[in-house]
Write a structure and sequence with these properties.
330 residues; three-stranded mixed beta sheet; single chain
Length: 330
């Protein structure tokens, strides 16, 4: 079984991209499209170094950009395939600055395999991983089947998550999901999080899922299936140049896999960790250096008051850990 990695990246300093972004963003809420959604941490090279060191078995790495590429990138690496938005997104939706659009259309990427892991450029492999950390030997995605009620907050993507759940509830209910996947939802790998699945038992409606904010294992056929059944909802999202409260996201396909019989295989919650970084970087830098989790997400947000300092501290930890160039670099 071949497993591909797909990763998205944007160069916030590209003048042409900035010009197009400025042209369109006046029509959209900055609340979902603030600076932290686009700024570059200058640590993308460490993503490639982590892949080469910890997942040398990966089949192909698909790098998605608007067209610009890191100046240090070795485009001749035989595992690397550079993809522009125009290569796989319908022209009527371009240009787009909406990560939901960029991710919802990945199933259209030419030569992308059936089994792939979708990364953002803020998600990193943190220690050695195996193919079976992402898929079973039968090609079923590994994930955590944990229900969790959605509590909407201001200045968040919660409304997008609710849109996903609304669609899920039009096709599934929690009792049928548990009937089909009981041992996958009540599993020792979830530890204390099994309590969440117990608490939702009185409700037939699905109230939400526990989102780990780490790379997601997908079957491409799951994307194709959801696009076929919910074409209007996905196409409506694709018409939005920037993220809006009316969007759906690729998590819709993740939730679909979680609801489907044989759609996923349980994985330990402790496999990954998402850090919502503010100004104290001690926890994330400790994880980077001590290899506490297999994958980590370093989530940027508008609450960081001293971005240069935070970026410098985290990148210093990465440099200490990955101090040799990968073959993905010139």
């Amino acid at each position: 079984m071949n497993i591909d990695f797909v990763v998205t990246w944007v160069n916030e300093n590209d003048s042409k991209w900035l010009g197009r972004k400025k042209k369109y963003n006046k029509d959209y809420s900055l609340r979902l499209n603030d600076e932290s959604r686009f700024r570059d941490w200058d640590n993308f090279k460490f993503w490639f170094r982590s892949v080469e060191r910890y997942a040398p078995w990966v089949h192909k790495v698909f790098l998605i950009t608007e067209g610009h590429l890191p100046e240090w990138l070795n485009i001749n690496n035989n595992k690397l395939i550079c993809i522009k938005h125009a290569d796989y997104i319908n022209n009527e939706y371009l240009p787009t600055f909406n990560s939901n659009v960029i991710e919802l259309n990945v199933n259209n990427i030419k030569n992308l395999g059936e089994h792939f892991v979708l990364f953002n450029d803020d998600t990193f492999l943190n220690k050695p991983v195996k193919p079976t950390d992402f898929f079973s030997i039968d090609g079923v995605p590994k994930d955590t089947g944990i229900f969790s009620p959605i509590v909407p907050r201001k200045n968040s993507i919660d409304h997008i998550v609710l849109n996903n759940i609304e669609i899920i509830n039009s096709h599934f209910n929690s009792r049928d999901v548990l009937r089909k996947n009981f041992r996958k939802y009540f599993n020792l790998k979830y530890s204390k999080y099994n309590i969440k699945n117990i608490i939702i038992l009185p409700w037939k409606r699905i109230l939400g899922f526990f989102d780990t904010h780490i790379p997601v294992s997908y079957n491409k056929s799951s994307f194709n299936h959801v696009w076929k059944l919910e074409n209007k909802a996905l196409a409506d999202t694709c018409r939005n140049k920037f993220r809006t409260d009316q969007d759906v996201s690729h998590w819709l396909i993740r939730y679909w896999q979680l609801c489907t019989k044989n759609g996923f295989v349980p994985r330990k919650v402790s496999f990954g960790k998402c850090y919502n970084v503010i100004d104290d970087t001690s926890q994330v830098t400790r994880d980077i250096l001590d290899l506490r989790h297999s994958v980590i997400c370093i989530n940027d947000n508008e609450k960081i008051t001293n971005f240069p300092k935070v970026k410098s501290e985290i990148n210093a930890a990465f440099e200490n850990k990955f101090n040799r160039k990968s073959t993905y670099e010139i």
